[in-house]
Amino acid sequence: MKLALKEMKFYKFRFILITLIILLLGLMVLFISGLAKALGRENISLLDNMSAEQYVMQDKQQPQLEASQLNNKQQQKIEDITKAKPMKIASDKLKQGNDESDVILMNTVKKEKPELKEGHYPTGKNEIAVNEKLTADDINKGDTVKLKDGSKVKVVGVLDDTMYSHSSIAMMSNDGFSQHASEKGTATFYPVKDLSSKQKHDLKQIDDVNIYNKDDITGEIPSYQAEQAPLTMMIVSLFVITAIVLSAFFYVMTIQKISQIGILKAIGIKTKHLLMSLVSQILITTIIGVVIALLLVLGLSFFMPVSMPFHLATSNITLVVVIFIIVGLIGAILSFIKLFKVDPIEAIGGGD
């Protein structure tokens, strides 16, 4: 470590340059990761905010919540088996003045209420709680808005990050939903958990009914896979670029100091110590660059408008930092090979 720090101090401009490049790459990776995570959550945060493990829905080749049509007879059988209450959703619009926002109207299910940022859950027929993203459209707690059918409802709560298929969720009481939602366009499904084998068997005996897990449903949201695939490819490409850049920098630096390495080997410094010095330099520059990038991104996130999709979870941050360190070490493999091959006699000009 001492050797590594001395060398970094001596060649400080080179190491500052490497750190700046890692910083820029880290900024891009963290920002795109936050964007990819947020876009993904805009598709599935309604499901993420539920405690349900499975969903009882209409049996379809492509299971989609908004397409689950269950008749009264099917619903009664499902409720007799699971003792669960139905969750219903329907497309709607919120109008305030000349502004109009597309939403997914949802009824209240006692055990599956998304968290509130402010206010309270709707209890009256003309009360509604809206997703926080709608506050960017100037729809706030206490406002009165119109639904598609022309009815006026009061915003009594703001939901914390609750969306499905890029549409904000607007929650109403069961009576309110029944009164305002179009019965023709209403989809019905049952979020359930801890089903016994017998319950699963009995449910599958109901005509045109099946049980799906979260992955089954998210895989059928058209925008989910379409967005995640290219964003993931961009992140992978940035990691590959990072490996190439670090390889080039450390390999060139290793070649430039061949004579110094030869002298160090000649006076008895072992190759493993030189390798440890190189690894220490890679770890220090990578960690400093990524940490500064992380602080900058987190700082910027406080100033981003609520309408901008950006979300960085702790797991994502940890993954990015670990991958950057691994990529940095992989990128320095060429320098490792060169260090092993350096002959002290030839390096200091004694081989002629």
Automatic annotation (TrEMBL):
The keyword Transport applies. Residues 233-344 form the ABC3 transporter permease C-terminal domain. InterPro entries: ABC-4/HrtB_transporter, ABC3_permease_C. The keyword Membrane applies. Keywords: Cell membrane, Membrane, Transmembrane, Transmembrane helix, Transport. It is a multi-pass membrane protein. The chain crosses the membrane at residues 231-253, 274-304, 316-337. Its main location: membrane. It is found in: Cell membrane. One of its GO terms (cellular component) is plasma membrane. Part of the ABC transporter complex hrt involved in hemin import. Responsible for the translocation of the substrate across the membrane. Belongs to the ABC-4 integral membrane protein family. HrtB subfamily. The complex is composed of two ATP-binding proteins (HrtA), two transmembrane proteins (HrtB) and a solute-binding protein. This is Putative hemin transport system permease protein HrtB.
